[in-house]
Amino acid sequence: MENANAIKLIKLIQSDLVTNGLVVDQIVPNLKKLREYALLEEVPTLVKAIRLTYEHIENNNGFFIAIPNDEPIEEDEVVEEATVGTQNDIESLQYLLSLFKDPTNKHNIADLKEYNAKFLA
Questions:
Q1: Number of neighbours of residue 119 by Cβ within 10 angstroms
Q2: pTM for this structure?
Q3: Domains in the chain: how many in total?
């Protein structure tokens, strides 16, 4: 993201995750504010990813989506269905937040799309 306030907010969310773990009442409002910044930058994949992230956290009272595979997905290959775990995947959430910082990177966009597919599965 190009907005300095958005980058500060991402860093704050990441810092809170390390310090306090996943506190739903803290992270969801921050993600909603971050989405407002993303809307201004007009990156639809990023806007959708942020919305799906906070909806997932609200609905599940945690974050249960694994980090996407490093292997590229072939055109005719089906994306694996996401299995919702029973333990918060803070590492995956930290990675997702890092993707939010640079949505112009083609690898980041690919991973954001994969996260979005897992959220919707």
A1: 16
A2: 0.85
A3: 1
CA–chain centroid gap for 57, Å, is 10
Which domain, by its residues, includes 91? 4-68+86-119
Sign for the CA dihedral angle at 111, 116, 117, 121 comes to positive
Residue 40 lies in a domain: yes
**Nearest partner of 14 among 31, 39, 33, 37, judged by Cα:** 31
Run of H or E residues at 96? helix 90-101
2-45 pLDDT per residue, tens: 899 999 999 999 999 999 999 999 999 999 999 999 999 999 99
Q: Is residue 16 situated within a structural domain?
A: yes
